[in-house]
Amino acid sequence: MTEGQGMKNYTIKDLVLMALFAALTGVLSFIYIPIPFSPVPVTAQTVSPMLAGVLLGPKKAAMSQLVYIFLGVVGLPIFAGFRSGPAVLFGESGGYLVGFVVGSYVIGLIYQLLNERCNSIISSTLSIITGGIFVVYFFGVLWLMFVLELGLNEAIMAGVVPYLIGDVFKVFGTVILVESLNTLKEKGIIFT
């Protein structure tokens, strides 16, 4: 096997876009609100994996979130609350961080499959809800159950319920942004 075989060869543009989405996730993590009845703060960072999934496709989106996590684990204070280090990954919010990787991949995959069969609004909405909400919450709740030794209902009450309304707004805001970008792309104003 020669060097590079079996690995995706990314272009400079791909690498730049993945780095930009990793950085966007980090920047959006600075918009956070600690809530007293949950160990996980409300953040704006979930918008980035949602956008990455639709705009970059599954593999590049997941890679952008892996880069974000790697940078935070090695010491850049880019996790919510300006935190960093492996303790964050293994703490209460670690499942959500893993959910960003898997969720952005699922978003990209579903968007690619649906976008060929239905309009962009439907495909982006369904893919973002599935990957950006259900998948991220799935990993977040499982991790809360493990780390905090919570039952399923307790983990859902602490790790899902407080965030649902905000996440609905994030989904629709992301869909509107994606549709705006698609319109600009169709008019030739931006290129991909």
Summarize it.
This protein is an all-alpha fold and 192 residues long. The chain has helices at residues 12-29, 47-56, 58-73, 86-89, 94-115, 120-148, 152-159, 164-186; strands at residues 32-33, 42-43. It contains eight helices and two strands.
Protein architecture, described:
The chain has a single domain, classed as Arp2/3 complex 21 kDa subunit ARPC3 (Orthogonal Bundle), CATH 1.10.1760. It is built from 8 helices and 2 strands; from the N terminus they run αββααααααα. The protein is globular and about 50 Å long. It has helices spanning 12-29, 47-56, 58-73, 86-89, 94-115, 120-148, 152-159, 164-186, and strands at residues 32-33, 42-43. It has a two-stranded antiparallel sheet with strand order 1-2. A hairpin with an 8-residue loop joins strand 1 (32-33) and strand 2 (42-43). By secondary structure, the chain is mainly α.
Record the SSE blueprint.
Layout (H helix, E strand, L loop, with lengths): L11 H18 L2 E2 L8 E2 L3 H10 L1 H16 L12 H4 L4 H22 L4 H29 L3 H8 L4 H23 L6
Antiparallel strand pairs: 1-2
Helix pairs in contact: 1-2, 1-3, 2-3, 2-5, 2-6, 2-8, 3-5, 5-6, 6-7, 6-8
Largest sheet: 2 strands, antiparallel
The level of helicity is 55-70%
The CATH topology comes to Arp2/3 complex 21 kDa subunit ARPC3
Top CATH class: Mainly Alpha
Number of strands: 2
Q: Compute the number of helices.
A: 8
Q: Which class best fits the helix and strand makeup?
A: mainly alpha
The main sheet orders its strands as: 1-2
Rg: 17 Å
What distance lies between the first and last C-alpha atoms, to the nearest angstrom? 32 Å
